[in-house]
Amino acid sequence: MRLIVVKDYDALSRAAAEYVAAKVRGKPDLNISFCTGRSVVGFHRELVGLYERRLVSFAKVRAFNLDELYGLPSSDPKSFDAYLQESLFRRTDFDPGRVRLLDLDSVDPKVACAAYEEAIEAAGGIDLQIVGIGPNGHVGLNEPGSSFGSRTRVVEMTEVTRLGQVGLFGSFEAVPVKGVTRGVMDIMRSREVLMLASGESKTAIVATAMAGPVTEAVPSSVLQLHPAFTLIADEAAARDLLAAVPRGMAVERR
Prior knowledge:
Elements: E1 2-6, H1 9-26, E2 31-34, H2 41-52, E3 62-65, E4 67-69, H3 80-87, E5 99-100, H4 109-122, E6 128-131, E7 153-156, H5 159-163, H6 166-169, E8 178-181, H7 184-188, E9 193-197, H8 203-211, E10 229-234, H9 235-242, E11 250-253
Parallel strand pairs: 1-10, 1-11, 2-3, 2-6, 3-5, 6-9, 9-10
Antiparallel strand pairs: 4-8, 7-8
Helix pairs in contact: 1-2, 8-9
């Protein structure tokens, strides 16, 4: 495991964007699976800035997404699909033909999930999976109790996860009850995983997930076992982890 500690959210966003841009420069046809959420808003903005300054091109990148809200058409502006399109893909030179997102519109969910993973495999697998971490330790929408052998599927979202979407939907009742996510096994099969964590709300769970036992009760804890896992965290999110750095974790401060 590798931990990169930066000062604050803005520094995290810049560091993450530079990290990904360097990977793309090294392998222009990188296969990247993107996530959504508050942790990556600034990261996307910084990626757009690097593209606008002609410091990186995404023209050959294949893009996938990590998860989606179930029951929303992909055209719904509240969908994760729409967010990625508006915050990143349409503001850069991503080739629409090389963007494949989870789409369950009018398709049997099991068939759609299997087809999605088949498309990823046909593309050569995920080179870089970008994730956040939920306050309950979820990764993607793999909630506590998710099997480490889980695959892409429809899931019930916990109340904690749904509360995080209230700002987008206006009320808790309006937030979808279910989501669809790449499974824990699918995430772990990525050649590299990059996690972003920011703020006091993530302090305790980052330490629990990264320095505590590997357990399905905290799905993100399995990333301790990934051979190429990097966590970029600001000082607030990393505070408790820095107090008990686990053996084998390389720490870099920027």
